[in-house]
Amino acid sequence: MGVRLVYIQVDSGEQRRYERELPFDELERFFMAMVLSYAPYAELQVKHMEARTRSIKSLPFPYEAYRQGQRYFAGAVYKSIADRKKLFAKAPTGTGKTISTLFPAVKAMGEGHLKRLFYVTARTTTRTAAEEAMVLMGTKGLILRSVTITAKEKICFQDEVRCSSQDCPYADGYYDRINGAILDLFTQETLITRNVLEKYARKHRVCPFEMSLDAAYASDAVIGDYNYVFDPRISLKRLWEEDKRNTAILVDEAHNLVDRAREMFSAELMKAPFLELQRAYKLRSRALSEGAKAVNAAFISLRKSLGEKKSGVLREPPEELLQRLEEFAALAERELAMGSVSSVSGESQEQQLLDAYYAAQGYIRIAGTYDERYVTYMELERNDVRIKLFCRDPSALLRQMGKGYRSYIFFSATLSPLGYYRDMLGADEEDYSVSVPSPFSKEQLEVELLPLSTRYRDREGTRGPIVSLLQRILRGRSGNVLIFFPSYEYMNDVAERFREQEPGANLLVQETGMREEERERFLGAFQAERSPSVVGFAVLGGIFSEGVDLTGDRLTNVVVVGVGLPQVGTERNLIKEYFDGTGKNGFDYAYVYPGMNKVLQAGGRLIRTERDRGLLVLVDDRFLSSGYQQLLPEEWKPLKVLRSREQEARTRWFGLYE
Ligand code: SF4
Predict the structure, then answer these.
(1) Which CATH code for domain 69-144+220-265+394-439?
(2) 75 close to 434: Cβ distance less than 8 angstroms
(3) Has residue 653 got a pLDDT over 70?
(4) Which of 200, 430, 596, 654 is most buried, by the most CB atoms less than 10 A from its CB?
(5) Phi and psi for 177 in degrees, rounded to 5?
(6) Strand partners, 506
């Protein structure tokens, strides 16, 4: 019997064919051995599917009752999946977002609308919430296989991520052992978290990251970072179109996806690594050294075009640089394929080459998607040059990356204004939106406004009033306080003044780059009935302003200083300019909406459950304007406007608002 093996070079279409004539019985033995080794896995899958469907059909909602708004939200999720639509959902804290999206998605699976769901998030803590929801549904009888993907750098068993078979025993022989490992894993486990994966990966001596990917392709639910769906470099590529058509993507805290998508779809390159490679490879590989030299030369001619300026915008991506990078990438690929280097300096050179190769490939890939939504800019940094293909509007690429999936559920407590997020996350006109009302009562939250100007030039004068505000809260109310500032500098300034005036205060101040234990210590200090009360100083948009759950009396007062505008900078201005050009309000798109999102997130730390009560104080006179008022949630209104003595002296009209 004639057999033929064909390799196809996907990009060029080039084919290599290998043909042989073999006796029929030999082929039959080969084929049967293959099928027989696959049979136990196929049998396991068939049985699992039957058990899965049965368990979903009889699965009750895992809590005693739906909370206010929860049934409505869950219904909207189910309908969007059934109708193959995207849903943009603003669901406030307390709606129970995780279960309100996972439960209907699982039910849709039971009805045959879905084969698989992805639950993607920006942070590890929200991934844990999804795992917990899976466990909870498991206690109610659900049989569903879910896999959590953890980043390679975090889950790697080695001191250094070097994935070649020479460097890593978990990569060496991976494909010989992975089938047995997956079979063992799937026979024993359904909730495949990081710990579970590590246990089985060690047992079978396979790479835990690769194993998580292999397990994900054969699972019902995948929990992981946004990257695995949206990032062109990392996304799971082995999903067939058929699989995608039966998969729903649940995007938690979707407000984060706008900036994350900008990062994923942008690419930047530095000049220095190419100069270093040019020198390092001079003797080892003349061709590669010349390739790096050509890239370096292209950078130099671009730098010259800047003249005396330190930065500049190029309307078109530089063609010359792109061509040189393509040539360099081909040479680097050949060099890397040639294999191992034993000396220590050789290894570090190889790593350098690998890094430059990936950076070049990233740049080339992004250059391929470059259109009017992009801009190229260049900056001089000390002796180096940085060039960036910057994606100002990620909506079209998000739409493209997500093409083929059955449905998307974008949800967040702060998907506000909805029109902006629909626009930025690639909604089509016929896609659905839903705003779930807050399940909490108005009596739980008091909101006050101290209308000071916190604009950069006026900050000096705000230290006194903010300290007085804190003193008033500490003397007049019980419980701990968390106060957020738009920058570290501003925060430290006020903290210093507060420390001078309240030497006995229980003061905690956020620092840059806090380690896990330090963060835990900071949050751990917020205990109910702590005396004296804790006053935590933190930055807006930082680690304590999102995803922090200080329930009950652990946190009863929150102060947010400023409207959260991002720092004025090149990229923000480029975004503004772009959206101005499309007839939208560029300042709102680049500054106001992302800023207000931080304010809403920080304010949202206060009321987390039906039992929580507290005071939220907003400090900024811009909240008096109708534009900003419109961006505040209904449950924060009406604001009670405060008057400070210092302010009263400066602005006579102020009393009108009291
Ligand atoms: S193959 Fe896996 S375990 Fe080995 S270095 Fe790479 S990530 Fe780490």
Answers:
(1) 3.40.50.300
(2) no
(3) no
(4) 596
(5) -110, -15
(6) 534
Percent helix, strand and coil across the chain, each to the nearest 5: 50, 15, 35
Contacts 24+ apart (CB under 8 A), 190-193: 190/138, 190/143, 190/144, 190/145, 190/146, 191/131, 191/134, 191/135, 191/138, 191/146, 192/145, 192/146, 192/147, 192/148, 192/219, 193/131, 193/148
Centroid of ligand 1 to alpha carbon of 165 (angstroms): 9
Q: What is the pLDDT of residue 106?
A: 98
Tell me whether the CATH fold assigned to 69-144+220-265+394-439 matches the one assigned to 442-657. Answer: yes
Please tell me the pTM assigned to this model.
0.88
pLDDT digits (tens, 9 = 90+) for 330-376: 999 998 887 644 444 455 788 889 999 999 999 999 999 999 999 99
Task: Compute the average pLDDT of residues 433-457.
Answer: 92
Backbone angles phi, psi at 618, to 5 degrees: -100, 130
pLDDT in tens, 9-29: 877 889 999 999 999 999 999
- For 95, 100, 256, 447, the CA distances from 565, given in Å and listed in that order, are 28, 32, 16, 21
Q: How far apart are CA 50 and CA 649, in angstroms?
A: 75
| pLDDT for 574 | 95
Residue 170 CB–ligand 1 contact under 6 Å: yes
Domains of the chain, by residue range, sit at: 1-42, 69-144+220-265+394-439, 267-391, 442-657
Which atom from ligand 1 is nearest to the alpha carbon of 156? Answer: 8
Q: Which atom of ligand 1 is least distant from the CA of 163?
A: 6
**Ligand 1 atom 2: the closest Cα is on which residue?**
207
CATH: 3.40.50.10470, 3.40.50.300, 3.30.420.140, 3.40.50.2300. Which one for 442-657? 3.40.50.300
Q: For ligand 1, atom 1, which residue shows the shortest CA distance? A: 163
pLDDT at 340: 47
647 by DSSP, 3-state: which?
Answer: helix
What pLDDT score was predicted for residue 41?
92
Question: Does 136 contact ligand 1 (Cβ within 6 A)?
Answer: no
Tell me, in angstroms, the distance from the centre of ligand 1 to residue 171's CA.
6
> What pLDDT, on a 0 to 100 scale, did the predictor assign at position 590?
97
Distances (CA, A) of 233 to 205, 325, 367, 522: 26, 18, 14, 36
Rounded Cα distance, 146 and 121, in Å = 15
Using the mean position of ligand 1's atoms as its centre, give its distance from the Cα of residue 87 in Å: 37
Summarised one tens digit per residue, pLDDT across range 573-616 is 999 999 999 999 999 999 999 999 999 999 999 998 888 999 99
